[in-house]
Fold this protein.
Amino acid sequence: MQTIQSSRQPPLTVVSEVPRLAAMRVLIADDHDLVREALAAFLKTEGVIEVLTVPTLDEALRVADESGSFDLVLLDYNMPGMNGLDGLPRMIAANDRRPVAILSGTASRALAEQAIQAGAAGFVPKTMSSRSMVSAVRFMAAGEIYAPYSFMQKADNGTGTLSQRETDVLRGLCEGKSNKEIARDLDLQEVTIKLHVKTLSRKLNARNRTHAAMIAREMNLI
């Protein structure tokens, strides 16, 4: 393992090995050191020629700009700079529209579906086995869309049916905003927001708006 030091940025780790498979370059962006190194080790064992790891979205964008696009980029949903799925289209553009997938340890099926609809090459739970992870990487690098069948079949506590507007309102609840403030932000009537809050509470099995926000944070819905 070789570490490249940058005077301006955190260390960039490169894992290289003579490949047993077709040459492939993969970028892993995750703010957990152990996750980055474990994933890199999995791919190295399977013969991926080059694996670069970085801790933030900004670092991932910089590396793609400086070293060229990758066969696949894996982005942690919760790392610095992502701001939910906002970082996804930025990374797709930086990677010359080549495959970019979302990694997450706790995300819901609804988020996985949103990520794929937003252009992700797939959704990869961090709880996957190393063999399954490597298979997923190969699949997505080949241009296919990947999401684990067992994960996508799981019940989502009703959250898979949240509309985009309900998600917008839920985000406002998580930010501690009043119905009036959310209504102003979304250019809606306050009574409409009240109805959305009532529906959200029912779908999330929440006792009230505060409980709904707590559930959303715990399930990484926002």
About this structure: Confidence is low (pLDDT under 50) at residues 1-21. The domain at 159-218 is CATH 1.10.10.10 (Arc Repressor Mutant, subunit A).
